[in-house]
Amino acid sequence: MKGSTLIKVASQSILKNKMRTLLTMLGIVIGVGAVIVMVAIGQGAQGQIQRQIDSLGTNLIVITPGASSSGGVSRGAQTYNRLSIADADKIRNESLYVNAVSPVVWTRTQAIGNGNNWRTSINGVSTDYPVIRNWDLQYGRFFDSSEVRAQRRLVILGHTVAENLFPGEDPTGRRIQIRNVPVEVIGVLEPKGQTASGSDQDDVILAPYTSVQTRLSGWSRIFQIMASTSTPAELPRAQEEITSIMRESHRLSEWEENDFTVRNQNDIADAAQSTTEVMTMLLAAIASISLLVGGIGIMNIMLVSVTERTREIGIRMAIGARGRDVMTQFLVESIVMSVIGGMLGVAIGFGAASLVAGATGWSTAISPETVAVALLFSAGVGIFFGFYPARKAAGLNPIDALRYE
Amino acid sequence: MSGPPTLSSRTTHADDLAAFRGGMNDNNVVMRTQGVCKVYSMGTTQVHALRGVDLTVHRGEMIAIVGASGSGKSTLMNIIGCLDYPTSGTYYLDGVQVEKMSKNALADIRNQKIGFVFQGFNLLARTSALENVELPLLYDRSGRKVNPRKAAREALERVGLGDRTDHDPNELSGGQQQRVAIARALVSSPAILLADEPTGNLDSQTSIEVLALFQELNRQGMTILVVTHERDIATCAQRIIELRDGYVIRDEAIRSRRDAIGELKVKPGPEALPTS
Ligand SMILES: Nc1ncnc2c1ncn2[C@@H]1O[C@H](COP(=O)(O)OP(=O)(O)O)[C@@H](O)[C@H]1O
Ligand SMILES: [Mg+2]
Description:
Chain A folds into two domains: 3-52 and 271-403, no CATH class; 83-258, no CATH class. Helix content of chain A is 56%, strand content 17%. Chain A has 13 helices and ten strands. In chain A, strands 2-3-8-5-7-6 form a six-stranded mixed barrel. In chain A, a hairpin with a 2-residue loop joins strand 2 and strand 3 (116-125). By secondary structure, chain B is α/β, with parallel strands linked by helices. Chain B has a single domain (59-84, 102-272), classed as Rossmann fold (3-Layer(aba) Sandwich), CATH 3.40.50. Chain B is globular, with a radius of gyration of 18 Å. At the A-B interface, helix 1, helix 10, helix 11 and helix 13 of A face helix 3 and helix 4 of B. The site of magnesium ion has 2 residues of chain B, from helix 2.
């Protein structure tokens, strides 16, 4: 039989049994739909996490004390913290790739102002910090380097802090108290939202690191050095460069390991992404089970159909169909059904994904690859689960099939 | 192969007939079986459905095969129709030896050389008359150039159903369904038309119509084998073969052939015969 005739014969037979066809396809529709929705949720989560990581600042490098735990023998991450202002200054002065550097210190404490009370963390940073974090001001201004040097008691409020202490107003120029030290609010940061791990990035107060060290926390050590490059391509070279500057600054001999860790944005992102990738795979695997069940449904119906249509098979053979013709007809029928079922499933998956997004506020994403894989997979299900019934039909003896009641 | 003692004389009669119809010219032989046996094994018991059938059919003959129920008529028809293999014996159809052929080759022979009409019509349900009739051509692998739609339409016109092409079987009477089945058997221009009790499910009036159609087709040159257990239907043929317990016990020409076409003209039934 010619290909076009085959498709015609198969679709005739599919259309002649609408109820049976619909029931057969239902399993595939639900299976593919479930895969699409699950993967949409997973990929949506991945996209959201990527956006959150990007919001940290796009070309971010973070230097933390202690050796990297990955790669060889670790002496324990919590080695003696030797990060210093001098390190930060040396990086700023010597690095070719880094465009901004800021030491970071922090402490958690109560802030009182406008008769309100809010517990938050105070981050001591340098004037480069808004550049590194890619963070603009909603109100007011940032402090300048002379104010840092002079250890001025100036603060910039994160959006959450501003909303809680001064709801609905611009707090620029107002005074608040931190650990009984009066400080002046000179600006408010734009809202940035949550981090990948779910903490509120806007629940923060920024102050000159000098002021935090001397007047608020009293610690002279710094906890982190943050830096950034102007393009992502420069990140690896900048990291190498920072590592060698830091080793020099810490006077490490050749056989000594780093007593600090330099990581970039992508290292941090990878960790988070791999978690959500695992989640996506898991969701897809669960959904695939329903696709498998759908496939078994097809096989079931096709087997019943072979029995039910034994006479038809006998007639076809009596007028000259070869076993192969019958087999191809049944295979094509099962493939056509599962592919159409797959397409309906994709459509329903799209609908369900946007329903889920609307109801929960999660972001969902459906890539063309997902759709293609789902359709290919359902065609595969059709071939795989259609094969056995088709072979059974082809193996029938014409005379037995004709006599079948 | 041992048979009843009368067998040889009966066969001679058929040979006389063949000689009468133009000699033993091999070109004129459509099919020939020699010592065809069929044994059905059912567990430990064996059923001998055919016990050595020698049969020669010439082009243009119309033969009735009669016999009691269980005498082996359907078994013989199925073997002649290449739906089944004989247990032993040889079978030539249109010059080729058939019984050793593969399943696929048999399928092709059924497709091109044989038109089969069944008692139960065996049309595809929910499929129009036209689609039913064109079906054999869709499985045609011979490479001959035919337009299935056109050929199917012509075949339906030949059996007088040119105006029923789009009807499904359940919208047609029994006689009309059987005529669709005959059109399907004709559409691939077979060498031989086989009908196993084609009137078994029809009333007597419709039976005459179907037989008149067979006689008309036979008059146009088609070789036809009809199985029946009704005498008055058998007498529509030119030659009668009787089976009993798997043996051919009679094979002779019919002296006074019944003229179904003529009878129809005298008292026309509800379904007029095609005028072709
Ligand atoms: N598939 C089969 N299996 C076993 N026995 C069969 C089968 N087909 C026919 N027979 C037996 O073979 C004999 C001849 O059957 P059949 O050719 O159908 O007779 P008829 O058509 O003359 O009534 C019967 O005894 C029948 O029971
Ligand atoms: Mg019978």
